[in-house]
Amino acid sequence: MSIYVFDAYGTLFDVHAAIAKFNAEAGPDGARMSEIWRGKQLEYTWTLTLAGHYTEFWTLTERALDFALARVPSVPKALKQRLLDAYFKLDAFPDARAALRALKQKGDKTGILSNGSPNMLKGAVDAAGIGGDLDAVLSVDVLKMFKPRPEVYRLVNEHYRCAAGDVTFVSSNRWDVMAGVSVGFRGLWVNRGKMPDEYLDFPPAKTLADLSSLASSA
């Protein structure tokens, strides 16, 4: 039996699925607005954590959307509430559903470790219908600090009562994989965006194009 722990947003759940529901109304700049939204959402987690503060992820998600809509005024601000509602129930990547199911069928333990607040994660997990394929959904909210603080990743060890080397940590965020590797996890980088590698001192054990091959290659 192995332990596989996944990042949520961008790894299991498509963070750009919200804007995809409103492409026609958002117009040609919708994708750029969504990229800014995601970038600011992450930036707020890093800057607040570095400054010793904490605001739950849902509030930061809304603030980041406000910023993105202000930066891209061609996207109607009237879409704000519908975008937030869609983000609360993000679509899971099809390969994520299949990978979780395959790992569970092999008898492995699965879980999520996320910046998301508990309500956000429940909304996404329930909407995706993947709750039955997860043994744990761990949120940074219990610590009041965000990734990549090492204390966050140790929540996995505490929950599963395991050593760091027993954990395979899977994320689409290269910085997240770096942080997992730095605490002793086996890191898998899901490079959906075909991005160049970074953090060469903390290499992933494997780089995957998506999660479709995870169960067979694990």
Notable traits:
single chain; alpha/beta; 6 strands; Rossmann fold; 2 domains; 6-stranded parallel sheet; DNA polymerase, domain 1
Descriptive notes:
- The protein is an alpha/beta fold.
- It folds into two domains: 3-14 and 90-217, 3-Layer(aba) Sandwich (Rossmann fold); 17-88, Putative phosphatase, domain 2 (DNA polymerase, domain 1).
- The protein is built from ten helices and six strands.
- Strands 3-2-1-4-5-6 form a six-stranded parallel beta sheet, sandwiched between helices.
- Helix 3 crosses helix 4.
- The longest helix is centred in the N-terminal third of the chain and has 21 residues, at 30-50.
- It is globular and about 50 Å long.
- Could you name the ranges where pLDDT drops below 50 across 5 or more consecutive residues? none
Briefly, what CATH class of the largest domain? Alpha Beta
Give the CA-CA distance, first to last residue.
Answer: 12 Å
Structural class: alpha/beta
- What number of domains? 2
Kindly state the percentage of residues in helix.
40-55%
Largest beta sheet: strand ordering: 3-2-1-4-5-6
The SSE order reads EHHHHHHEHEHEHEEH
Mean pLDDT equals: 96
Q: Total number of helical segments?
A: 10
CATH superfamily of the largest domain: HAD superfamily/HAD-like
Q: Indicate the overall shape.
A: globular
Reported CATH architecture of the largest domain? 3-Layer(aba) Sandwich
Biggest sheet descriptor: 6 strands, parallel
Percent of residues in beta strands? 5-15%
Rg, rounded, reads 17 Å
The tally of strands reads 6
What is the name of the CATH topology of the largest domain?
Answer: Rossmann fold
